[in-house]
Specification:
With about 230 residues, this protein is mainly α. It has twelve helices and no strands. It is elongated.
Length: about 230
């Protein structure tokens, strides 16, 4: 049966709600006849309702609201929020199982990086209740889904150095150390990056704790990584 009525997608949410609430009318027809006549229309409406109001669009709306809130709190530019939402919209199906808060923070963090204005993750985390590990999982999934948009090693080192308030000289020296220890940097492990910066700082007093906190890892983990590296 072909439905020759108007396209269901022209109605807004309030009209759709009234249509769903309206009972089937049985006027000189059997119940089976009414269901057959309205079957195609109701199936179209159900599919539209599932895919938009209660599916992808609803999830994107939730993430978008969190992106706007975190962006304003962190003082990031509007274009960062726009880039973050575009990134999430392209890969929303790769983010199943993650909270809107974690996705929003990860997308803003990556968007700021892609715009050439990298910010420490902590700048966005302080404006959200999202767990740091969940945010990192979301960032990893977005990077994987984007195919080849993995940040260069230098970007990771700069982020850790910025959190520890280290100058560019330490970053350059750490990159030299990492270049000579290529096996150690597989996967861009945060404790390895912290270890390289610690070695670059000539193991200054108090630097180990600062770098471990900046990378979000344990002091012992940084020490173990440093033992496997040549300065």
């Amino acid at each position: 049966m072909v439905d020759t009525g108007p396209e269901w997608r022209i109605y807004d949410a309030s009209q759709l709600a009234r249509i769903r609430a309206a009972p089937l009318r049985l006027v000189n027809k059997t119940e089976i006849g009414v269901k057959a006549e309205h079957g195609a229309r109701w199936l179209a409406l159900a599919g539209f309702d599932r895919d938009t109001l209660h599916g992808k669009e609803r999830r994107l709306a939730s993430i978008g609201a969190e992106v706007s809130r975190v962006r304003e709190c962190a003082g990031a530019p509007h274009r960062a929020a726009e880039a973050a939402l575009a990134l999430v919209r392209r890969h929303v199906y790769d983010l199943e199982g993650l909270s809107a808060g974690a996705i929003a923070v990860a997308a803003l963090w990556l968007a700021a990086r892609d715009l050439g204005e990298p910010r420490p993750l902590s700048d966005f985390l302080k404006c959200s209740k999202a767990d740091r590990s969940a945010v990192r999982r979301a960032a990893w999934r977005l990077n994987e889904a984007a195919r080849g948009r993995r940040p260069p090693l230098e970007e990771y080192v700069r982020i850790v150095a910025a959190r520890a308030r280290l100058s560019a000289a330490y970053v350059r020296r750490a990159l030299e150390i990492l270049a000579g220890n290529r096996r150690a940097v597989v996967g861009r492990n945060p404790w390895v990056l912290a270890a390289a910066l610690w070695l670059a700082a000539y193991r200054e007093h108090g630097m180990l704790i600062r770098l471990a906190n900046a990378a979000g890892v344990t002091v012992e983990g940084v020490k173990n990584a440093a033992r496997r590296m040549r300065a």
